[in-house]
Write a structure and sequence with these properties.
- The complex is a heterodimer of chains A (272) and B (398).
- Chain A has 272 residues and is α/β, with parallel strands linked by helices.
- Chain A is 33% helix and 23% strand.
- Chain A has a domain of 66 residues.
- In chain A, 47% of the residues are buried.
- With 398 residues, chain B is an alpha+beta fold.
- Helix content of chain B is 67%, strand content 6%.
- Classes of the chains: A alpha/beta (272), B alpha+beta (398).
- Chain A: This is Organic solvent ABC transporter.
């Protein structure tokens, strides 16, 4: 079981990140990260602040280029190609940002179908209809379509963000802290909703969270990042109580530094 | 002894020091003293001035406005001759001020936005050129820049005989720019009225479209409809006016150019000088506005596969304008006020005409009071408009 995470990357994995390094000046934000995920599976990325979780996600979606290493999506090398230059993959990945990053200059429906309007894949009328359909899916009334994002509450904004992320029926859904700043009831509701949407469409989901309980109960795989590196990666079902306690301690800072490195590897070679 | 007993503190009458230490009494006292000082000073100055004027045999009052001005003004937007009154002369000056300020505000906004965006370009050359432009023209006093442009135009452009013709009918000479214009016709008045009517109509259609969209959710192609209404109405007015086609072309006659619409070197120098100077400040306002938009907005647009130029136009600039409007108002006010430097290049703006009026009539106080009031009025109008615009654009946070 104990193998260095950097051994042979498997091209059969849907998402395959190999030795990815991203620096900002002298600071190494993501340090030789390996990550594999099969199609249709879900993964939670946990880790304390500044562990490199968001940067990793932004490399995946094409906002940042990499300094070293590769990213393959379904066998395509998408390393260092930003989203506008990889139109097919830009459409196949949807991302929810930590602060939602809704466009305040546009109405809710224009936000949701901004991509479709701008790339001309839908005319404005159809785009609006599509946006209203998506609003229904995330539990918002059609009336909110013509409001501005600033008119909405935090939870409603989060839902709009999710609607935007899934507007192009993506194969990969990236969620940066989907439940940050929401109360426990609403968090649970949002997580359930995401799980339902993803399951129905067979979407591959990678989600950043700070909640060990949510990570264990709602996701099939778990990757823990610490100081830019993958500290632990495996199936959530393999996490026993002792391990859970250790990871939780890492998360809340009561334990410092790696004690044992452990990587779960499945028979088919896909790290999970 | 029939009086009821009081505690010692209650019956003690307040002394003067007690009153002076009372915050409320003090506040009133300070205000009375301040207003008193202002009144005394103004009274002193005004009575002194009146005495001096009387000694010099200068009558006060605004009756001079009805007298014949008896001086020529080199350019005017309305009918004016030396036989017109001083009031008309001042109106000519005011219209000239408004003309240069209005055009200057529009041009400096456009140029400023271009250079503000260029300063953030990822292209090194574009970025550096924009920086050089901004830093150069921002740091040279605007008066010197006006002298520069005014020296440049008559000296760098050819004599009317060898006029440059960059576009057919457009002549560029040391005496300014000549443009072909349609010969005055009632059709153009009709078109002007039609344009105003069209704007009113567009306003109401827009209101109706929003109401309908709120009620039924049906979107309305407002941009297309707006253009249709505007140009449709104007064109109908043009046809109704008999569709005049005669155009007054500027042509060389003798040593000078006759006909067409002349834009004087003075006006050009002032407009270019004010526009260039103010556009550097607008560029900085726009740049800071863009940088004030959270980076996440760029990233979100990026992640959707939207091109940066589209993201800038649809997402970033509209949001940066919110931050930019109040400082932009300052720049517009500055440009309007700086237009009074017209006197340095001989453009007959309000101050220039007022100066001539002052010299001829000796009514310095009245003339100055008129243009100060007008500048105050112009500035307040600009502020009012920009405040309204700001409110309209402001983000209503919940």
């Amino acid at each position: 079981m104990t193998q260095p995470a950097s051994s042979s990357p498997d091209a059969s994995a849907f998402v395959a990140i190999n030795k990815l390094t991203k620096k900002f000046g002298q600071k190494v934000a993501v340090n030789e990260v390996d990550l594999m995920l099969a199609k249709g599976e879900t993964m939670a990325i946990i880790g304390p602040s500044a562990a490199g979780k968001s940067v990793l996600m932004k490399c995946l979606v094409g906002i940042y280029g990499a300094d070293k290493g590769t990213i393959h999506l379904n066998g395509d090398d998408v390393t260092n190609s930003n989203a506008p230059t990889r139109p097919d993959w830009a459409e196949k990945i949807g991302m929810l940002f930590q602060q939602n990053a809704l466009f305040d200059s546009l109405s809710v429906w224009e936000n949701i179908c901004f991509r479709q309007i701008e790339l001309g894949t839908l005319n404005r009328k159809d785009a609006r209809d599509r946006a209203i359909e998506l609003l229904g899916l995330v539990g918002l009334a059609p009336e909110s379509a013509d409001l501005k994002p600033s008119d909405l509450s935090g939870g409603m904004q989060k839902r709009v963000g999710i609607a935007r992320a899934i507007s192009s029926d993506p194969e990969i859904l990236l969620l940066d802290n989907p439940t940050a700043g929401l109360d426990p009831v609403l968090s649970n509701h949002i997580e359930l909703m995401i799980a339902k949407i993803a399951e129905k469409r067979g979407t591959t989901v990678i989600s950043i969270t700070n909640d060990m309980h949510i990570a264990r109960t709602r996701y099939q795989n778990l990757t823990m990042m610490y100081d830019g590196k993958v500290y632990w990666s495996g199936k959530t079902s393999e996490i026993d109580d002792a391990h859970n306690a250790h990871l939780t301690q890492m998360l809340d800072g009561s334990s410092q530094g790696p004690i044992t490195m452990r990587t779960g590897k499945r028979e088919d070679g896909v790290y999970a | 002894m029939s009086k009821p007993h009081h505690a010692p503190g209650d019956v003690r009458s307040k002394s003067l020091t007690d009153y002076l230490n009372d915050e409320n009494v003090r506040a009133v006292l300070y205000q009375v003293v301040a207003i008193g000082l202002i009144i005394l000073t103004s009274w002193y100055l005004v009575s002194n001035t009146l005495d001096n004027l009387e000694q010099q045999n200068i009558s006060t009052g605004y009756s001079f406005l009805d007298l014949e001005a008896s001086f020529e003004i080199s350019e005017s937007m309305i009918d004016y001759s030396a036989k017109s009154t001083y009031a008309t002369a001042l109106l000519v000056g005011l219209l000239n001020t408004i003309k240069v300020a209005f055009l200057g505000i529009i041009l400096c906004t456009i140029i400023g936005i271009i250079f503000g965006v260029a300063r953030l370009s990822s292209n090194w050359i574009v970025r550096k050129l924009a920086t050089v432009y901004v830093e150069t023209f921002r740091n040279i006093p605007v008066l010197l820049q006006l002298f520069f442009w005014y020296a440049l135009i008559p000296n760098s452009f050819p004599h009317p005989r060898d006029a440059l013709e960059p576009l057919p009918g457009v002549l560029l000479t040391s005496r300014g720019l000549y443009l072909p214009v349609p010969i005055a016709d009632t059709a153009y008045t009709l078109m002007g009225i039609a344009a105003i009517l069209a704007l009113v109509a567009i306003y109401f259609v827009k209101k109706w479209a929003k109401k309908r969209q709120d009620a039924t959710g049906e979107p309305f192609p407002m941009t297309a409809a707006g253009f249709g209404i505007f140009f449709g109405l104007v064109f109908i007015a043009y046809l109704l006016g008999g569709a005049p086609t005669e155009i007054d072309m500027p042509t060389l006659k003798g040593f000078n150019i006759r006909g067409g619409y002349n834009i004087s070197p003075e006006f050009l120098a002032l407009l270019i000088g004010l526009t260039v100077y103010t556009s550097t400040y607008v560029a900085e306002v726009v740049r800071s506005g863009i940088q004030a938009v959270p980076n996440g907005q760029w990233e979100a647009a990026d992640s959707l596969g939207i091109k940066r130029s589209v993201a800038l136009r649809k997402v970033i600039l509209p949001q940066s304008m919110r931050v930019a409007i109040p400082p932009l108002t300052n720049q517009y006010l500055n440009l309007t006020k700086n237009s009074s430097l017209a006197v340095a290049v001989g453009y007959p703006d309000l101050v220039s005409v007022s100066n001539t009026t002052m010299n001829q009539t000796g009514q310095a106080i009245e003339a100055i009071s008129i243009f100060m009031l007008i500048y105050l009025g112009l500035s307040l109008l600009t502020s009012l408009f920009m405040n309204w615009f700001n409110k309209k654009m402001a983000l209503v946070e919940r």
